Amino acid sequence: MLVDYYTEDEFWNLEKPTIPQRCQLFPLEPIGIGTLYMESLSGYIARLADYHTITAEELILSKIIPLMGHKTSSASSINIINHLFGVQDSLTTASQTRVNIATTLIQVLEELTQRQDLSCLWPLKWASIFFEFSILRLHQAWCPVCYDTWRTNNRVIYNPLLWLVNTIKECPHHEHQSLIEQCPHCQQEFPPLSRYSRPGYCSICHLWLGGLQLNQVVNEETESVDFWRQQLIAPLSNQSNKPLWQCMWFDDVEDLAANTPSNFLPPIHQN
Questions:
Q1: What 3-state class would DSSP assign to 141?
Q2: Residue-wise pLDDT tens digits, 108-139
Q3: Which has the higher per-residue pLDDT, 35 or 249?
Q4: Cα 97–45–128 angle (5° rounding)?
Q5: Residue 5: what pLDDT?
Q6: What are the backbone dihedrals phi and psi of residue 247, each rounded to the nearest 5 degrees, phi first?
Q7: For the chain, what are the domain ranges?
Q8: Residue 149 in this model has a pLDDT that exceeds 70
Q9: How far apart are CA 110 and CA 128, in angstroms?
């Protein structure tokens, strides 16, 4: 007589296993979240593209635009590209359309990378309330000394959001060093996000934008957080009728400064 030695537990389970959602892009961690040194949204996109060894244009066309097209019924792919790449229609200017596109862009990036902390890389709450104000520059600005310092010390090259704020004219790290908006090689200005954006490099001639100026010494010293706060709040002190968006930024500065280490530096570059 045959004896069945198989128990019910030994039969194969033919149900399809639950496969967790996978990210389509590397979950690159944004720099400086919750501090005064937070990375800009445009800089994050450029750095994400560079991490995948493709251009910002290729990243946007192949990964971002298809998902945005499904989420944005009122804007065609051409309009989305113009808003992302054009200077006059860039994400640094304020309008309801650009706010909607930026909001959708962040949702798509979080879906592609499976990250949940990208919304603070662009000041959505200011622009969504006060469209008449443009608190950010139309062209990328940078400190060449910071770039050289970071590269010399093998730090990640990135673009802080503060470099795009109109009220910031000089680098808080390096005394008397003005933020630069014109490439020293081709003498051109370029938007924060363009087809060939790459932190530390010109989007037009593709040359390195670092360069020691004013006899600055390359080291890992940083200024205090109080200096950052003074740079941001100083323009408000002599105005009787302060724009409300500046007051909102003032409140944010207090919160961000409290969480900012005095010795903050970009992370070490992992080869």
A1: coil
A2: 999 999 999 898 887 655 444 444 446 778 89
A3: 35
A4: 30
A5: 58
A6: -65, -40
A7: 41-127, 144-258
A8: yes
A9: 20
Q: Which of 91, 9, 73, 37 is nearest to 227 (CA)?
A: 37
Please report the sign of the dihedral spanned by the C-alpha atoms of residue 140, residue 146, residue 149, residue 150.
negative
Per the structure block, which two tokens stand in for 94?
């304020």
* 56, 179, 190, 207 from 187: Cα distances, Å: 22, 15, 10, 12
**How far out from the chain centre does Cα 138 lie?**
15
Give the pair of three-digit tokens for residue 99: 């706010």
Residue 81 parent element (H or E): helix 77-85
Closest by Cα among 198, 215, 205 to 184: 205
CB count in 10 Å sphere of residue 98: 20
Sign of the torsion angle spanned by Cα atoms 29, 33, 38, 41: positive
Average pLDDT over residues 47-54: 95
Phi-psi region of 193 (alpha: psi -120 to 50; beta: other; left: phi over 0): beta
Please write the tens of the pLDDT for every residue from 176-208.
Answer: 789 999 999 999 999 998 889 999 999 999 999
Question: Is it the case that residue 242 has pLDDT exceeding 50?
Answer: no
Mean pLDDT of 152-156: 94
Closest-CA residue to 53 (of 198, 189, 244, 223): 198
Q: For residue 190, what are its two tokens?
A: 């370029």
Token pair, residue 193, equals: 């996000």
> What region, left, alpha or beta, does residue 34 occupy, with left being phi > 0 and alpha being psi -120 to 50 degrees?
left
Rounded Cα distance, 24 and 114, in Å: 8
Question: pTM for the whole thing?
Answer: 0.79
